[in-house]
Design goal:
heterodimer; A: 289 residues; two-stranded antiparallel sheet; B: 315 residues; mainly alpha; 14 helices
Chain lengths: 289, 315
Amino acid sequence: MLNATILGQVFVNGVSLSAIYILVALGFTLLFGIMRVVNFAHGEFAMLGAFALFYLMKTLEWHWAFALPVGVIGVAAASLVLEWLVFRWFYQRMFESMIGLLGLNMMMMFGAVQLWDVHERNIPTMSGDVLMMGDIIIPVDRLIVVIIALTALAGFYLFIRHTRAGLAMRAAAQDLETAETQGVDTRRTYKIAFFVAILLAALAGALWGQIYAVSPFLGERPLLMAFIVVILGGMGSIPGAALGGVLLGFTESFVGTFYGAAASAFLSFGVVILLLIVRPWGILGTPEN
Amino acid sequence: MSARKWIIALIATVALLGWPWLTEDKFLHHVGVLICLTSIAACSLHLIIRTGHVSLCHTAFMGFGAYGSVISVMQFGLPWPVGLLIGTALAAGVAAIIGPIVLRLTGKYFVLITFLMGEVVRMAIIENTAITGGSNGIFNVPPPFPFLTSNRAYYYFALAFAVFGVGLCARILTSEFGRAINAIREGERLAECSGVPVIRFKVIVFVIACALAGMTGSLQGHYIKFVGPDAYSGFQSLNLVVMNVIGGMTSLAGALIGTVFMVTLPELLRGYVNLQQIMFGAILFATMAFLPGGIIEAIRRIRALLKPSKPGLAT
């Protein structure tokens, strides 16, 4: 059963899963690295992104190339209200943030149930075509998902590396007080970081909703995956999130295909638990004092 | 104890023993049972929290207790007391194995690893359909004793266990050992330098707490006559943490207050499950943001406000 066709499919699968996991995990690790906030509500923003795309594409019948950016940016902009109402109270308070944001997670999840009911919906596909590369069949919508995700990742990298706001973020993450004395407006930096993190989460959610289905409980899995990715790579480390995402995405697609979803879940959880015991700061992270 | 404390204790005893006879409402008796059982779980988690670790897999140990007990009673035909012991021992045994490993982690890493372990336990329950009944769970669990059929009778049964469980926690916390626990939380290095065997004490506390959780699991499974994976998920563990947080994490009384609050509120809001979850979320967020000390802290503050300020003391 092991031939090039299946391996090719599994590879394509692995790339698209990895890309989505990295998107979710990047926002998660950004919030942790800069504000010391463990965002247990991160998956819910992915859920909002998926619902936004669903409404724009299904109800308003927009084209995806238009609906996706509008929906994702809309969710991120609207979430700034939550930043003001909820998140700002938890900056630099790691323990309180964990439990308080679990509360927010519950509120958003069951608020969504109240609004949209529990049944699953399907977002219209971006494209029904398939691309043949030799024996390997690549659905075009998967390809679009991968391209969008990779573009977003590249954009994020450029933003963090080559803009003043990105520089301010890296400075704040490294040493908050020194950054402040050097004139970094941390309040503003926090807002930008929050916006970017939610943008990535909402995008990941929308792409996730493209591949699977949309429901108020959509956020649970991305959150769990973000956890695993971030612990694998190291909390607060951006390259770590990328590495963790690739590891998890490919593990899930390979082990999941050949041994079943339960085996892949047990394997990834087991590896993460072992890693936490041996090297809690992750593969690319740095130990804290 | 002063005379006033004796009187309070007497009133509390009479109230706890007497109230079920004031009403014939079975539902209220049911809430009473739930409060008794949940208080053991919440207080045992409080023990772990007092060592400075927030465990998100405490209900997984309730699951070990419940499944251990239910399977020994239903499949092997053992009497319930033996089942209870097996369930409790199973929970304690698992805790004794993983405790020395995971208790070396602190803060967020402990929270994360327990969260994942809870998920692993839940997945294991779902996957091992042959033993655990998978996601459907096990139905028609017999009561511990044939005469424990009415809710009122079970209330007294559960109350006895609650007095034992909560009393054990209180005794531990007020002993010299309890002071060592506080020392470990406040300054692990310092405690170690002062001769407290930190890891060993943490493991002892963890094992005792998980054993109590296992006991609760057995009592609960045989009371609601059903065990299933959802009752032992991370979500339920979180509920136990919430009870501790809302009540106040610095005292056992806080855990008790939180339990009463968190058990009665959903039972009274039965028809509005969604709104109830949204409200819990809001309470959780608001408590963590504005009142990390919980209800106990609020009471303390109000009392400080009501007390006439002493002259000459700057406020």
